[in-house]
Amino acid sequence: MISDKIRPHHLERKALLYVRQSSAHQVLHNRESSALQYAMRDRLTALGWSEIEVIDDDLGRSAAGGVLRAGFERMVAQVCLGKVGAVAAREVSRFARNSRDWQQLIEMCRVVDTVLIDQETIYAPRHGNDRLLLGLKGSLNEYELDLLRQRSLSARYEKARRGELVVSAPVGFVKAGDRYEKDPDRRVQEAIGLVFDKVLELGSARQALLWFHEHDLDLPVKGKDGETAWRRPNYATIHRIIENPIYGGAYAYGKTAVAAGYDGTGVSVKIRRKARSDWLALMPNAHEGYVSWEKAETIRKMVSSNVPTSRHHGAPKHGDALLAGLLRCRRCGRKLTLRYSGAKHHIPRYSCSRGWMDNGEPRCIAFGGLRVDDAIEEALLMVVGPGAIAAAIAAEKEANQRRDQVREALKRDLEAARFAADRAFRQYDAADPANRLVAGELEARWNKALARVTEVEGKIAAHDAATLAPVLDPGSLATLAADLKTVWAAPSTDARLKKRIVRTVIHEVIADIDPEAAEIVLVVHWIGGVHSEMRLPKRRRGQRNSTSADVIAAVRQLALIANDDLIAGILNRNGLVTGNGNRWTRERVTSLRSHHRISVYKPADDGIEPWLNLSNTARLLRISSRTLRLAAQAGEFDAIHPLPDGPWIFNRAALSTSSARAVTERARQNPKYPTGSHPDQQSLFSSITSTDGCCDA
Questions:
Q1: 3-state secondary structure 32-89
Q2: Is 624 marked active-site?
Q3: Is the CA virtual torsion 457, 458, 463, 464 positive or negative?
Q4: Which of 55, 488, 616, 692 is deepest in the core (most CB within 10 A)?
Q5: Catalytic choice (22, 34, 93, 204)
Q6: pLDDT in tens, 211-261
């Protein structure tokens, strides 16, 4: 029976059948739903439509509103043109599950008088009751989708809080039900373990990256198909391994969040990393890791503030810089470059400018080399002694017994390459020789695998040739320890000889600057595996020859009562010299005051000086200068004495204190002695004028 809502003018226009499924999985597997939707064509035919157009452009697209639907837009456009008498779908939820699209469709159908048809009934949007019913159904469809999403996410989050939600396994792990297990491939395990070892040893992820590049070692990565592939590592590869808590044996979920936005092209989705405190789940010791949780956290915190360089020290040269080629920046891992300054170009300065010169990156650190070289030289002379030599020999033997990490990694690569070559040979051998299309391809693969074997064998041979095993003679080392100071201080000693001595004992020095403490931080890696840290105060440029801080403080105090000419005489009388070793003159004192912003001495206009010397103070108090000096030395007067052979300085305001008045009164009452007796001082002898009764007899 044809509904009375369908009029002849509806049947004169064509009908649109809208077919949609939300995902590609539903399109492939929910075939019955597709068949039922396409069967709505028969219902439209039964209702009287002869021209029926099927719109199925949106198969595999969600109707929640975040995806552009070309089929829906085309359907709405045809409705707006007044060419459509009816739009049909198996359920009205197929049209839209968001209020914006749903209300747009209903409003357009009301304007042009188009009916909506589903498997149950016919809706005429111009009828108030039908429009109300359609509005309720649209809201219910939107709420239903939201409810299903919330239920799914709640179940997913609860499973994650229990540590049982395993979505995908990173490289080095495989899914084993609801937990992670380490990859059974020993080559993968050793490679990931090597990453943590090198980062911990070198102190920087980028420095470890350069170590892998230096020795041409590959790292495993997970492909899109889940297969493990070996590639040349980059910084992101190593950083992801260090930052992922799964390698420390912890289960983590909810590390990122999706931030949706809108731009000119539509909806844009960005992945935002969340703070660790906002993660949904973090469960240490949930499974077996490559390192302990404590070690993984230590490495992660260390890497978070670190950022490599040329791989070799370079040949010793004639320059005076002792550590040329040995210093490495702790922040970026690059070797520090060296340049000389000064009038004779003999003052070394180390700076991390390789990144700036090569890639325009900002410079990391820079500092003068004289103080650093002096500190390393002093440490070297202390270390290279008879006892230290014996320890170095023992450490060298122990180091030779330790495994060579590079060679072991290359041996694992060689084993994998030989296996691949053997498998390629078996495939080639099993093929029919007459089928040249197959045999030729298999032969090319076999040759490629053999070339890979040859390449890895060449790497191992080159590594063995480059790895020198120095034979240390204990007798020669003991002789070197006894004569080292003499040889080092000799003017004829070549700088290259000093550098060779340094490189015999020191492997590398990691340098950094602590800006808060204004210190140069040096971590010395000695041959044999021992490490030591030094902290040196960082000087400004030219500060090595600058005036001593004690002299500056003395000038600051002397300027309270003396002019520059008098100050220069006092400094010379005390044997003090300038930073360059010169005697003091009035001009040099003036220059020092100007540089350090010390006020010049000016007599007071009213004649009342706020600061007085010893003679003027004694005259003011009307006591002898010797009495005043002894009282100041005893601490009974607040006075300043900047230099041993220099004046005493008194503050006029301190002369009116009670202690000063007591000293003055005591001196005036007992003029025979310079300072008199202190009231608290006790006598060792009884008074001969005692009125005790025993003396009257």
A1: HHHHHHHCHHHHHHHCCCCCEEEEEEEECCCCCCCCCCHHHHHHHHHHHCCCEEEEEC
A2: no
A3: positive
A4: 55
A5: 22
A6: 888 888 888 888 877 788 888 888 888 888 988 899 998 888 888 887 766
